[in-house]
Amino acid sequence: MNTPSLALIGGTGLYRLAALEDVTDFTASTPYGEASGPVRIGRLGAHTIAFLARHGEAHSVPPHRINYRANLWLLRAAGAKRIVAVNAVGGITEAWAPAVLGLPDQLIDYTWGRISTLCEEPGSEVLHVDFGDPYTPSLRRALLQAARRAGVPVVDGGCYGVTQGPRLETRAEIARLRRDGCDLVGMTAMPEAALARELGLEYAGLALVANWAAGCGPEPEREITMDEVLGNVDRASAPIPALLRSLLDG
Ligand code: HPA
C-alpha cells in the first residue's frame, strides 16, 4: 500500500467513502489520546488516500468532544500532508442553499472550552502561526480547479462561523453571525483548521450545505430536521469522489 499524501475528513452524514478500494486500517496511539476511529487507507482510482470520520463512524462523538488534535496527528502519522475537511453546514447567505457544495475561505470562531492548540501542555513550544488565511490558499485553489475540470459546481469563498453546538442556533444567533459577515455556520471547522496549521498540514474545507440556518431561506420559521440534514448532505456529497479524483489527477 502506498502512503496516502491526501486525507479526507468526513463530517456529519459522511462516515465512509464507498468509492475507496482495497481498504486497510491504520491506528496508532497519539500524544493527545484517542482519535475518533481508525484511518481507512485505500485506493481511489490510481491514487491512495486516507479517510477518517470526524464524529466516529457511528456518529458517536459530538462536535465539542472531538479530539481534533488526535485526529490530525493520526492522519499525519498515516502520511497525509494535505487534508480536505468535509463539514456539514447551515447556509446563511443566498449562495449557500441546501445541497450546495462550497469552499469557504474565512472563519470566525465562536466555540469555547475546546483544546485549540498544540501548546496546551506545559513545556510545549509556544507557536504563533499565521492564520490570516485559515484555509491553505494553494490547496483551496487546486480544489477549485479540480471542481471546474470535473464539472462539479462549487461556491468559491465564504465566511464559516463555527459555533459550539451540539444544538443548532437560535434565529438571533444566526442574525448576529450574518451581521458579523458569516455566510455559513457549522460546528467543526475550529479548532481543526488552526491545529492543522500548527501541525504543518495543508488544509482546505469542503462545506456541504445541509439546511438553511435558523431564520434563513424562504421559510425562515421552519424547523430543521435531521432527515433534511442527512438528505441534503447525501445529495451534496455525491460528487466528492469525482472531485477528489480530479484533484489527484491534476
Ligand atoms: N448550524 C450549525 N451547524 C450545522 C447546521 C446549522 O444549521 N447544519 C449542519 N451543521
Shape: globular
Number of E-state strands: 11
Provide a count of the helices: 6
N-end to C-end Cα span:
21 Å
Indicate the CATH topology. Rossmann fold
Instruction: Let me know the average pLDDT.
Output: 96
Structural class: alpha/beta
* CATH level 1 name: Alpha Beta
Poorly predicted runs of 5 or more residues: none
Which cofactor or ligand species appear?
A: hypoxanthine
**CATH superfamily placement:** Nucleoside phosphorylase domain
Integer tally of domains: 1
Task: From the alpha carbons, calculate the radius of gyration and give it in angstroms.
Answer: 17 Å
The largest pleated sheet is described as: 11 strands, mixed
Percent range for helical residues? 25-40%
The arrangement of helices and strands along the chain is: EEEEHEEEHEEHEHEHH
